[in-house]
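Continuing from yesterday's entry. The apo prediction looked reasonable, so today I'm repeating it with magnesium ion included to see how the binding region is handled. Same sequence as before; SMILES copied from the compound registry.
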Amino acid sequence: MAGTHKYKALLLDLDDTLIKSNKLYDKTLLHVTRYITKKFGLDDKTFFNNVMDKEMIIQRSFPTVHTRHSRILVFRMALDEVLKVYDYSILPEVEDMYWEYFISHIELYDNVISTLKKLKELGVKIAIVSDGSLGLRIKKVKSAGLQPYIDQVFASEEVIFEKPFGALFTLALSKLEVEAKHTIMLGNNYKNDIRGAQLVGIRAGMFDPPEDGNPMGQDSQIRVIPDFVINDFSEILNEMGYEK
Ligand SMILES: [Mg+2]
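Holo prediction written out below.
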């Protein structure tokens, strides 16, 4: 428990652990679909729902690899369904628009910066372990103002498979030169963040804030038990054996 052991490294999930992503993804999708519907004279609501469906299909078609986060495939599939012919150069254009909008509207949870600052001053190594492409993760970190506190960013793209596969966690441990038993993981996904980290021997906790939280990934058949649950980001200090 807290206080008995001072951990040397903190691994963090990014979306819905440091940054409030859940609602922003919907807002971003709405922004981009409105641009598309205006351009092609389509109905806003119908096309938005169409895009949501296609997002689900892409997510499920590429389980555990970063392609499942591709937005260009979603927009192509949605547009292909409603238009026979269109200028396909819009596809990378709206993909860029999507990420630019998302990145420029990022909000952090309360006490993220102050807590990371303290941990950094205490000499704790801090890294992001996140599913998706490396470039986009680094852009999110930079835009959120997290870069001064984050030593490294590791993306599933680097190891092919997403969490809960152990490769992303072991890559982080090896690059940070820390052992699993001296490391703590914090995330918002039971299966990917908690079980994934626990499988390689890392103590793993759930971030479940009262507002804008997004705990997910709990399976009805196999229940994942987190080693700890925190409701405010600053509580990670205690979990790591340091004074709050
Ligand atoms: Mg997450």
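Comparison notes:
- The pocket of magnesium ion is lined by residues 13, 15-17, 187-189 (CB under 6 Å).
- The two ends are 15 Å apart (CA to CA).
Will overlay with the apo model tomorrow.
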